[in-house]
User: Fold this.
Amino acid sequence: MVWPRRRFTIACWIAMVVPWLGLPAWGEAPASQVTTVPASTEASRELLLVDVPAEAERLFGGAAPTSAADLKLMQQQVRRIADRVMPAIVGVRLGAAQGSGVIVSSEGHVLTAAHVAQAADVPIEVILPDGRRLKARTLGLYRSLDAAVLQIKEAGPWPHVEMGRSNDIKLGQWCLALGQPGGYERGRNPVLRFGRVLESNDDVMITDCTLVGGDSGGPLFDAAGKVIGIHSRIGGRLTDNLHVPVSAYTAAWDRLLAGQVWGHLPGQTPFLGVKGAAGDDQARVTQVFKDTPAAQAGVEVGDVVVGFDGDEVTDFASLTTLVSRKEPGQKAAIDVRRGDQTLTLTIVIGKR
Amino acid sequence: MFLRTTKTRESGARQATLMGATRAWLRQGVVTAGAMALLWPAITPVWSAEPKSAAKPSTSAASKPGKAAAETARNPLDDVKQWVERNTGLREVSDRQRDHESIRAAFRDVIKSARQSTVRILADDLSVAFGTIVSEEGLVLTKASELRGQIKCVLSDKRTLTARIVVVRPEHDLALLRLEGTEKFSAIEWCVEAPTVGNFLATPGHGELPTAIGVISVAPRRIAAAFGYLGVGLDQARPRVTLIQPGSSADKAGLQVDDLVLRVNGEKVDDREMLQQQIRKHPPGDKVELQVRRGEHEFKVVAVLGDLQTGLQQDRVDFQNRLGGGLSSRRAGFDSVLQHDTVLNPNECGGPVIDLDGKAIGINIARAGRVASYAIPADVLRPLVARMIADHARESNLADRPVVESGTNKAGG
Assistant:
């Protein structure tokens, strides 16, 4: 039997940007390119790389430290990573809202969370750890997984970190979370947390690196100081810290850079509250659900929807498509044929 | 203690483990909170998604055949567990977690000496804090704001000794206690190196393994004091409401213009200043009970205080920060604290926090948020404690108490 889900969980969105130029998305990259550590050439001068001693790699992979010596080794690696990546951790500010982000290319691409970026192609502010405020613009948003990329609009090169791989994460492996919880604070370094991966799949990664409001968009690092996730939301327990797997960015890198927006945040799928027959050659309403936007707008059973916010509606599927392009809270005009009349009703898009 | 996630890694079979259940909840009822609630009160709605139908395929691994059923079935005992976790500090810890005893076990030798210098403080027989033995003569440093009533200390050898408060430094929220007894106590050893971000830390209790572990998150910095804020305008004389700031704590509590505030948490307030004083005694986020007269009626309302500095009620920030456990009531207004990510209960502050060399890097002074515990660093404490001990010695001399005198002279030296 299925228990009713009354649990109250919160999601806290955090922002981080990982620009990653010069290489195709992970799936397409030849193995050699992916694994080769770039030499310290002039071009990669700003790339913040971290050495990983073999022993540290073993411990970070999920082996439990058993002695003070093991702990010292791990501590040394955590300090090294924190020290190296710190300059790439940014605060992100859009109006009164604040999140975090991480710079992933010398050109100034920043990985963040979609709920921090909010929309494509809007001005947004990036705050470096030293307090410098930079003009930036949002690029694409993959809303379903809460991934977004920003572009710093001022001349680089920018200190940046590498994106790693999130598809071969081992449960129990150690990781570092950085970000600006509570928003950017002058005189405070980006805040470090250290923990382990508790769950990981293509959609979400869960760790016990504690997060809180303002962390949204900040990076999760592996033992090599590469980004494996972006902070997204939290739940009621200290172990409910959710991150966007970095593969959400790497797999859709071109779309994100092209400024595309797709998908919806959980619980933010736009809806009207009507039902129609799928096979029908017109969008006839067969049911209007109680207390929904459709009911409030005055849509009635038997109405045939012929237009939605200026677009023609030919059948129920086309209506569904048009609605999915809207955001909850937006107003739309819906044209319905009722008997001999054609009415235009105003509807406020709901969400579910 | 509530461990159900056993051997899953080894067996490779993921059962309906706690983490699995967690994942299922997170997929179901997700309330998004803004990136930063305080600064984002209007833009991002906090919403509670209606439970999706179990039949609806999820895009994730949760929908893989055979697994979905196990993950969607939820044990009602989980609610009980969460209540216990929130209210007692007893947490279930899976073997994948940082705080699992298999990880804490690596710190056994690290805290061996420091835990002899750690005491459990009882105030009227309630466990309110840890304490740190700072001199062989039995002087204990602890978090002052948690102390009330009759003070006792439980030592690492399980003996319980009575203690009295001898010096208090409210600005640091520190108190020096004097243990009864004349034997030599095991004094803490301070770390002399500067704390570095990423350093591993252990907070000893009385067990062989540390109570909790963590890393330094932020280098030492000042934390400004924060005061509670109600959001009302008041008459010059009596505490009669003349104005309600929309969206403020008072507004949300349902106060109205012309209401007369009689008492705050039972304390009588006769004029505007007294009301302000009572409110500012509390940090933002605290609940205060107001007794109010409206016309003929008298009633009580509970207001959750906002922040005096911003004038805002930090509903969402505060809500998020309390997710996962209680906070210290005094958690702001420190000259210099280092921030670490150790998960502490409010009554686990006051004791030493130890680095990997076994030295005290500082004293835990507050549980300040979901991601933050504060410790006063050793370089601040060393001179401060010396001055507190000297003050105590001087007062003891003035009071002409020979037994205490001989002890404190040594300590002061």
